[in-house]
Design goal:
Phosphorylase Kinase, domain 1, binds thymidine-5'-phosphate, alpha+beta, globular, about 35% strand, binds aspartic acid, D-amino Acid Aminotransferase, Chain A, domain 1, seven-stranded antiparallel sheet, five-stranded antiparallel sheet
Length: about 240
């Protein structure tokens, strides 16, 4: 069996249902566009558990997503989508590439969330793009873009409030969206939501509880992911 698609941290497999796929979370971690690589025994299981709980919560809050059901510890069934080649990033606090680009100090709290877009291309290193690029590259229509921005901000409100209850600050995160294969007029939230694609800081200590522990060699990477899962479970009761 070969997967339909293999990315840096996930594989997609066909199922018996033509409208769904099996999404497998791998143990591989990469950073800096794949330059830094390591495998962590528990990573697939932890990210699947965190992402599944968050997707179920978002669905309950009225956000349409690709999620169907959890299959086992490292696999979920998802609706088949055509992924939009635009990554949507929301930032509440300055960190990462924002600081690199602007020189602003890490930790500056924005007066309003920043929404930015990048072109989903490993070859080009996911460059920052804007609305005009997206229109001319035919990555999404201007109407789609309004929807992506509105949805991303709504997800930010829901996730920021949820992670605050977990004692975590949602600093920034990346979302991906896709068109349902069964009805391309419908755009849903796709991919995963986990400490790989979110920056989460402990509200009391400021400690980084996300993939920056791996990117910056801070150690205890899986311990932090395990702690996030524990808090998410506890908060959801
Ligand atoms: P950045 O500061 O490196 O641009 O990252 C912003 C957020 O997006 C951060 O929470 C990590 C996430 N992200 C991904 O999930 N995948 C990526 O390829 C990149 C560059 C960032
Ligand atoms: N996920 C990207 C990579 O592998 C970038 C990152 O998260 O830092 O390389």
């Amino acid at each position: 069996m070969t997967p339909l698609y293999e990315g840096k941290s996930k594989r997609l497999w066909a199922t018996e249902n033509p409208d769904t796929l099996r999404m497998e979370f791998k143990n591989d971690a990469t950073a800096f566009n794949g330059e830094k690589k390591e495998s962590f025994d528990k990573k697939g299981r932890l990210n699947n558990a965190i992402s599944t709980l968050i997707y179920v919560m978002l669905e309950k809050e009225g956000i349409p997503t690709h999620f169907v059901r959890e299959i086992d510890e490292t696999n979920v069934e998802v609706k088949k989508v055509d992924i939009l080649m635009v990554e949507v990033i929301v930032r509440n606090v300055a960190a990462g590439s924002f600081c690199k680009r602007t020189g602003m100090a890490e930790g500056h709290v924005f007066s309003q969330p920043i929404v930015e877009f990048s072109y989903k291309s490993d070859e080009l290193g996911d460059p920052l793009i804007n609305d005009d690029y997206i229109r001319e590259m035919h990555l999404a229509t201007p109407e789609d873009l309004v929807h992506l921005r509105t949805s991303a901000l709504k997800v930010n409100d829901l996730l920021s409030a949820f992670f605050a209850k977990c004692g975590l600050k949602l600093v920034d995160f990346k979302l991906e969206f896709g068109r349902l294969a069964s009805d391309p007029s419908v755009i849903v939230l796709a991919d995963e939501i986990s400490p790989d694609g979110c920056r989460l800081w402990d509200l009391k200590t400021g400690e980084k509880m996300d993939k920056d522990r791996f990117r910056r060699n801070l150690g205890n990477v899986m311990e932090a992911y395990e702690e996030v899962l524990g808090r998410v479970k506890e908060t959801l009761g």
